[in-house]
C-alpha cells in the first residue's frame, strides 16, 4: 500500500451506517474486527463492492482468518464517521488528521503494487490460476483478458466497480510518466536541466553524425536550381522537403519521447515505416502553415506600416515643395503671373476686336466696289482673315503655355524625350 493510496477516502457501509475513512486506516479496522469481508465498501461515488474484493485489503483479511499478525502498514490516517454506530469503536475527533512520521519511498509502478497485494501475486482476482492482463484504475483489481466487460471491442469495464480497466503495461507506463513529471516538477528548472539539454544530442553520436550529413546533403541540394533545367528545379524542391522532413521528424520524435518519459531514447526518428505522404509531404505542408500563421501577420503589419510611412513622407514632401514655390531663388520657385497673364489676355482681346473691325471694314469696301464697276481691286478678305486668325491662335497658345508653366513650372523636355521617359 503506497502513501498515495493510503490518503484515498473510501466509504464503508456497516449495519445501515455509512462511514468515511482513508484507505490507510482500513487495515486497523480489519484487525479490530470492525470491518468484515462481506461489508460493502466503495471509493468515492463508485459502485459498492464487498471489502474482500479489494486487492489491497485481501492480505489483511487472509491474515485475520489465519490468526497471523497483520502486514505492516507504514502510515495511518484516522477515520471520520458520518454517523457513529454504538457497536463500532472509533477514535476521537481530536485525533483526526494525525499520522505517523511520513515515509517518502521511491515511486513504484501501479502494476507492481497490484501484484504485491493481489492474491496469487500477479494472478487474476477472479481466476487465480490465470495471469492478469488488466488493472482497474479505481479499485485496483487485477483481471485476466476475459473478466472485464467489453464495449466496442476496445473499452474494458471492471466487473466490481464499473470503472475503466487498462492493460497493466499501460498503467505502469502512465504511472512511470507521472512519477517522472512529479519529480521534475518538484526539482524545478535549473542549470542542471540546461546542461542536460545541451549534452543530450551528444549521447547519440552515430545519430548526430548521420543526421548532420543528411541535413548537409539536403541543404546543398537546394542550390541545384543554379544548374538550370526543370529537373534540377524539381530536385531542389524535393531537397527542401527532405530537409524539412528531417528537422520535423527529429523535433516530433524528441517531444514524443519526453512526453512518454523515455528520456534516454534516441532523438533520431525511425525510418522503418517511411511514407512519402506522412513523412515528407504532410510535414512540409505543416511547416508552410506554421510559417504563414507565425510570420504572415508580421509581414502584413510591416507592409501596412511602410505604406503609411511612405504616404506620409510623400505628402510632407509635396507640402514642403509648395512652401518653397513661394520663396524666390529656389528650384521650386514659381512666381505669381496672374497680373502678367491678365495683361496678355487683355492684349489678345484687343487684337481680336481690331481684327473684327478690319473684317467689317473690308466687307463694306467689297459691297461698295460691287456698286462701282471701275473701282480698284481689293485684296481677298478671306486670305487676310486666315492670316490674322493664325496669328491670334499663336497668341492664345502662348497664353495657355504661360498659364500651365506658372502652375507646373517650365517644361524643358521635348516631346520625343517625354515619350522616351514614359516608356
Walkthrough of the structure:
The protein has 423 residues and is of the alpha+beta class. The protein contains 12 helices and 10 strands. It has helices at 3-6, 26-32, 58-66, 110-117, 168-187, 191-199, 205-221, 230-259, 276-324, 338-371, 381-408, 415-422, and strands at residues 9-14, 17-22, 40-43, 49-50, 80-81, 134-136, 142-143, 149-151, 155-157, 164-167. The strands form 2 sheets. It has a 5-stranded antiparallel β-sheet with strand order 4-3-1-2-5, with no helix packed on it. Strands 7-6-10-9-8 form a 5-stranded antiparallel β-sheet. Helix 8 crosses helix 9 and helix 10 (338-371) runs antiparallel to helix 11. It is elongated, with a radius of gyration of 50 Å. It starts with a helix and ends with a helix.
Question: What are the defining features of this structure?
Answer:
elongated, 12 helices, alpha+beta, 5-stranded antiparallel beta sheet, 53% helix, single chain, 423 residues
